[in-house]
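re: that chain from earlier
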Amino acid sequence: MSLDALLDVPAPAKVNLFLHIVGRRADGYHLLQSVFLLIDWSDILHFERRSDGALRRHDLGAALPADDLVLRAARALQAASGTPLGADICIDKRVPWAAGLGGGSSDAATTLLALNRLWALNLPRERLIALAISLGADVPFFVAGRNAFVEGIGERLTPLAVPRQWLALVKPAAGLATADIFGHPALVRDTPAAILSGFLADAATPAFWASGFGRNDLQSAAEDRCPEVAQAANWLRRHFGNSRMTGSGSAVFARNGMDDQPLATWPVEDPLPPGWVGRMCRSLDQHPLVDWAD
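^ sequence. v structure.
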């Protein structure tokens, strides 16, 4: 039986627990190592099937760019499958953008997974991941649906069991353009690469995750471009004892325990500056849509 609509479909964000730049390809792309961790801060999308092949995006909050990753993902899936169907796609944008949380990439991945189901295409996950690679470095991770050790330019994924964690996240008012950070002249590009087998052995112990392994090699460059990143990091350190930028910023997070309850509560007595957003997040063991593709 065909579906007419898929409503309230989540697109969860992610954090980079660390991000090391270990080299650079001849074409200029940076080689990284990171752990991507899904969190329970999500955009919500709604999909309604159209028979005329048209793709229409409807923004339920702030207006998004005219031709964003969601529409590009939908067009890529149309072209790859040859389907005559289209869709109305509504986006309730809740995850801040220009934050390093992967919100746009997650929206694109959810679009691939949802339209694959709505249009009854039944493309396997490997085919969707191949489409995802053409859309952006983070999109394959969200289509794969599992927390992962990430290498290359983001396309090499090794599923990784990460203990459930509490994370306090703050996004200052300012955003950051990824290209601006990767082009910073002071960016560290030669962090020694971790050996995957050794990393996986170390990561099998809860103590490893409590230690706050590694760093974000982009953070110094981001703080130079955007002083609010440093201010957010200081705010989190003051209340939670640690902080680290995620992705290429500008969002910053603090580890806040791995038990049923966070170690520290949100400091309501010290409100964030105007225009900043923050919340306590819990990590996810897997993507909510992980079973939507084989």
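The radius of gyration is 19 Å.
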